[in-house]
């Protein structure tokens, strides 16, 4: 079988973090987002992949890494937006290739279910997910018979009784032709349905994350690191005999963990990462390659992108630090958000019979944060 | 009606078992599509056409019709699920022509079969069954008689049919080929090594091959053991066209459409759902409409008997017991008849007080639950009249009962019962309303109002699913980390709570205990501490005041109070930490709708904890051991 992966652009919500690189090339625990997608395809025996992107050269490493297992056809996206990307691969999609948004982190069972159902009914099909707030995704109305009754690509408000569009689909020639003439995803789908066309909805309630905003990276880290069952420490990692390492952790080669550093898993320490003396790395932290963590730094549930530097005694929690960013010493992030503060998506926690909303800061690509700053929850520095 | 079809063309000795056995095994994998009658036709190694068929489930009739005795090179098989009308030997497939040289199995409905039948009868054909299918072999026979080859006669016959069909046919005069045609009803081809297959669904032949081709509407053709031939029908002919003009077709190059699949048989049939349990939760609106559509006539059969009974004892096990409990509370409360629900395995302790003036209603999804069957036998000895409430036509308990009512939920595969529960409750509720009306306890206006609400349940369930699925999914992500939960309710809310707790235990492996809300302070409340989940069932205003103080006493202990609550009871909505706001409706009918969030909660908690809700450990769908 074939798949068309939309590896796309930077995405509005993550542009500050990626510095304009495709968001599918953001690493999470040492693996690019798109590699999670490719692994799902491989687990479903899909080895012909059309990769649509506006920057084909960015994906050379990926094609080399998976070259033995997958036949890639990398195409430069012809026009803007998702619809432009879809039409770049219209030949394959007309023939029933799987359409897969490259920023979707999902269990391979979801794709398996979609393909199974496609073969059972031989009708176009899209993945839908029961999500409470569909504003950030597409909204899909589903009938009792499991058929799509309506599709809104960019819902303006949260719609009761709608499912989120899961970013995976199998279409047909007629739908692709409609998309070409309308130059719109939802117009084509709604027109097709209105004329009596049938599109199945496959409901998926398991793991599904659409990487669109920095906090989605935190969700993804949580799920990926939760899957760790054992520690893996490279023999070429350099770990002080006085460092304390607990719980499942991955430490890659060339990493250096200094005296008295504490790493409490699940956590990921990338290639050539330096963790200074007395640093405290708490659960759900992923430090990508070549980053440097100063002494006495405390990190919790955060994503530190490659080549970032975090200065002495800073505290970062629920935060994302873009690649090559520099946090000078003694920077603190505040985490606690007043409930439902407008414009901030926070992480809900329950402790001591109270609900807490927490989120840290998002530090952009190559940004620099001055010493002694205290950052309010949800701060974005680009 | 949803049927399953299989056809096999095999070189001798390639299947490792006899052809009849291979057909049987394939049909068994289609049993999820239904199973009240089965049959097969084989052209044997000595060139005879054998047709065997019977009503009943495959395992039950396997010996009788002798699948395992017959071997051959081509054969077809059929399994059927009737939701209306009794299955019979004659109506079972395959069907033959006048002289038994052509056999046909079919899934779907031929809309113009009466006209075709009339023309064929005038031309001297004799029909033995009432089915629409039987016109197909006779049509083929007629065109062969007029001089066409087997395949041309088949094409000509198909071009005259209108409606939905998936057809497989074999003809003794062309003993290497199985002919097929498809319109609307599903049909899939499997390419094997020395054998080819056609079936309603992929699981039928997954043991032999994983290379498949999905047949499209309007396509027809034939398979031999070496070859698959596919054509697209370009012309539909009138039934008055008795010329020998063969309808126009084009040969289809299917090479690009052949797919390789790698999943297990059962994964192939979930229709867009990751698990059967979720599929069946979503099927409830349909299951309820089908059950309610025929309910008036079904209940009319038993109403006079139940109304006259001294006591109505309802027996059931597991989920069926919870439906029984709801039924008995309603029979007491609105039916005005002394009724008691008993767990099947405990029933023997009550049997001695049962008399011949009593009615026993035996509730069993499968109709095979051994504990319930044993209770039925004992009650029968005491002279009670037995009414079965089952979802499987002609199963053991209906066979041993005096009267039977069927829920029309369709096959339920998930071990945790969902749609059979709601349809059982709908049936028993309707019965209670009718009894109440007959006994004068309910005024006609009240009864009609309740029945109107009952008729709206398919819509309401559908709305509750689409509105609350996402919310319940996020609730489940929090519930997953708990050790234990209470489900509290009052009156008919209690069996709903019991069923909710059972679902959570069954699929999410979480300890859950249902208790009468008023009784909780006499013991269980001792377990409640900070963040302990306590889930309330609130159906309406009747018990709202009392439930309010129950919620307050739990809130005072910092419990995590969740509630399924009508959205207009604002004081309770405010009081609960996690209210799930439900449509306002008649309280007596509400259990059918209010159980749905509990089913979803159990499902999503199981998924969040990484369990497979379709295969709970230690549980079987039908319990046939004591």
Describe what this molecule looks like in 3D:
The complex is a heterodimer of chains A (382) and B (626). With 382 residues, chain A is an alpha/beta fold. Helix content of chain A is 21%, strand content 31%. Chain A is built from nine helices and 38 strands. The longest helix of chain A is centred in the N-terminal third of the chain and has 14 residues, at 108-121. The two termini of chain A are 42 Å apart. Chain B is α/β, with parallel strands linked by helices and 626 residues long. Helix content of chain B is 36%, strand content 23%. Chain B contains 18 helices and 25 strands. In chain B, strands 3-2-4-1-10-9-11-15 form an eight-stranded antiparallel sheet, covered by helices on one side. In chain B, helix 7 runs antiparallel to helix 13 and helix 8 (295-308) crosses helix 12. Chain B is elongated, with a radius of gyration of 27 Å. Chain B starts with a strand and ends in an 18-residue tail after the last helix. The model of chain B has no long low-confidence stretch (mean pLDDT 90). The chains are: A alpha/beta (382), B alpha/beta (626). The A-B interface holds A 1, 44-45, 95, 109-110, 112-117, 119-122, 125, 130-132, 141-142, 144-146, 160-164, 200-206, 350, 352-353 and B 186, 188, 201-202, 212, 214, 216, 256, 259-263, 267-274, 278, 282-283, 285-286, 458, 462-463, 466-467, 469-474, 478, 530-531, 558, 603-604, 607.
């Amino acid at each position: 079988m074939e798949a068309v992966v939309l590896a796309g652009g930077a995405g509005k919500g993550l542009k500050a973090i990626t510095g304009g690189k495709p968001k599918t090339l953001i690493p999470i625990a040492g693996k690019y987002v798109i590699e999670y997608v490719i692994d799902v395809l491989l687990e479903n025996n899909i080895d012909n992949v059309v990769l649509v992107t506006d920057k084909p050269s960015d994906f050379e490493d990926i094609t080399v890494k998976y070259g033995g297992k997958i036949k890639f056809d990398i195409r430069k996206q012809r026009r803007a937006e998702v619809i432009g990307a879809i039409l770049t691969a219209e030949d394959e999609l007309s023939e029933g290739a799987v359409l897969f948004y490259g920023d979707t982190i999902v269990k391979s069972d979801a794709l398996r279910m979609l393909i199974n159902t496609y073969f059972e009914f031989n009708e176009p099909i899209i993945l839908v997910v029961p999500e409470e707030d569909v504003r950030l995704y597409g909204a899909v109305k589903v009938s009792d018979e499991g058929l799509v009754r309506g599709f809104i690509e960019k819902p303006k408000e949260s719609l009761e009784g709608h499912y989120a569009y899961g970013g995976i689909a199998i279409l047909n020639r007629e739908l692709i032709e409609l998309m070409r003439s309308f130059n719109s995803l939802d117009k084509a789908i709604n027109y097709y349905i209105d004329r009596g066309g049938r599109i199945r909805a496959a409901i998926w309630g398991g793991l599904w994350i659409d990487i669109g905003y920095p906090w989605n990276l935190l969700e993804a880290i949580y799920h990926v690191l939760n899957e760790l069952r054992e520690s893996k420490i490279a023999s070429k990692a350099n770990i002080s005999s006085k460092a304390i390492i607990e719980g499942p952790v991955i430490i890659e080669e060339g990493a250096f963990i200094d005296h008295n550093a504490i790493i409490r898993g699940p956590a990921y320490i990338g290639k050539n990462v330096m963790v200074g003396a007395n640093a405290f790395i708490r659960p759900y932290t992923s430090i990508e390659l070549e980053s440097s963590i100063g002494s006495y730094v405390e990190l919790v549930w955060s994503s530190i992108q490659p080549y970032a530097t975090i200065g002495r005694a800073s505290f970062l929690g629920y935060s994302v630090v873009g690649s090559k960013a520099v946090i000078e010493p003694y920077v603190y992030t505040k985490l606690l958000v007043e409930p439902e503060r407008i414009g901030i998506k926070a992480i809900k926690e329950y402790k001591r019979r109270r609900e807490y909303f927490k989120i840290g800061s998002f530090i952009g690509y190559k940004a620099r944060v001055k010493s002694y700053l205290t950052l309010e929850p949800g701060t974005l520095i680009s | 009606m949803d049927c399953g079809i299989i056809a096999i063309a095999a070189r001798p000795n390639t299947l490792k078992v006899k052809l009849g056995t291979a057909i049987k095994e394939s049909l068994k994998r289609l049993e999820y599509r239904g199973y009240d009658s089965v049959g097969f036709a084989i052209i044997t190694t000595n060139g005879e056409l054998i047709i065997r068929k019977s009503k009943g489930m495959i395992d039950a009739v396997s010996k009788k019709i002798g699948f395992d005795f017959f071997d051959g090179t081509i054969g077809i098989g059929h399994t059927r699920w009737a939701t209306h009308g009794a299955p019979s030997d004659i109506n079972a497939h395959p069907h033959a022509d006048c002289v038994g040289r052509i056999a046909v199995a079919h899934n779907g409905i031929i809309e113009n079969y009466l006209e075709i039948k009339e023309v064929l009868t005038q031309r001297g054909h004799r029909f033995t069954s009432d089915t629409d299918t039987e016109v197909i072999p006779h049509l083929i026979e007629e065109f062969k008689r007029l001089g066409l080859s087997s395949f041309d006669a088949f094409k000509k016959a198909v071009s005259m049919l209108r409606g939905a069909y998936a057809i497989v046919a074999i003809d003794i005069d062309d003993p290497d080929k199985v002919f097929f045609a498809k319109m609307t009803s599903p049909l899939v081809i499997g390419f094997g090594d020395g054998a080819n297959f056609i079936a309603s669904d992929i699981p039928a032949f997954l043991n032999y091959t994983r290379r498949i081709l999905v047949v499209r509407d309007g396509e027809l053709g034939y398979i031999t053991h070496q070859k698959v031939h596919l054509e697209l029908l370009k012309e539909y002919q009138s039934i008055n066209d008795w010329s020998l003009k063969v309808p126009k077709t084009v040969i289809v190059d299917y090479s690009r459409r052949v797919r390789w699949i790698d999943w297990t048989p059962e994964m192939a049939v979930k229709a867009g759902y990751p698990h059967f349990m979720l599929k069946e939760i979503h099927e409830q609106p349909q299951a309820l409409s089908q059950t309610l559509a025929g309910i008036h006539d079904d209940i009319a059969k038993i109403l006079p008997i139940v109304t006259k009974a001294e006591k109505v004892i309802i027996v059931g096990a597991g989920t069926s017991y919870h439906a029984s409990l709801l039924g008995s509370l309603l029979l007491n409360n609105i039916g005005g008849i002394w009724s008691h629900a008993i767990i099947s395995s405990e029933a023997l302790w009550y049997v001695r007080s049962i008399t011949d003036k009593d009615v026993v209603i035996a509730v069993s999804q499968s109709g095979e639950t051994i504990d319930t069957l044993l209770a039925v036998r004992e009650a029968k000895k005491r002279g009670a009249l037995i009414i079965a409430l089952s979802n499987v036509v002609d199963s053991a308990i209906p066979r041993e009962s005096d009267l039977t009512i069927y829920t029309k939920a369709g096959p339920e595969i998930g071990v945790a019962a969902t749609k059979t529960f709601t349809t059982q409750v709908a049936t028993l509720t309707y019965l209670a309303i009718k009894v109440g009306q007959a006994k004068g306890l309910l005024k006609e206006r009240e009864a009609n109002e309740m029945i109107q609400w009952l008729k709206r349940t398919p819509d309401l369930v559908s709305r509750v699913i689409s509105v609350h699925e996402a919310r319940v999914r996020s609730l489940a992500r929090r519930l997953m980390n708990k050790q234990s939960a209470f489900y509290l309710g009052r009156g008919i809310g209690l069996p709903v709570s019991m069923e909710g707790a059972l679902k959570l235990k069954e699929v999410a492996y979480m300890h859950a205990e249902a208790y009468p809300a008023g009784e909780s302070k006499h013991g269980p409340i001792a377990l409640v501490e900070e963040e302990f989940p306590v889930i309330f069932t609130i159906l309406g205003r009747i018990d709202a005041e009392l439930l309010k103080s129950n919620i307050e006493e739990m809130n005072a202990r910092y419990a995590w109070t969740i509630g399924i609550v009508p959205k207009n009871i604002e004081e309770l909505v405010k009081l609960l930490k996690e209210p799930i706001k439900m449509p306002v409706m008649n309280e007596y009918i509400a259990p059918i709708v209010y159980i749905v969030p509990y089913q979803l909660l159990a499902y999503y908690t199981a998924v969040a904890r990484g369990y497979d809700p379709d295969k709970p450990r230690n549980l079987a769908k039908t319990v046939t051991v004591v």
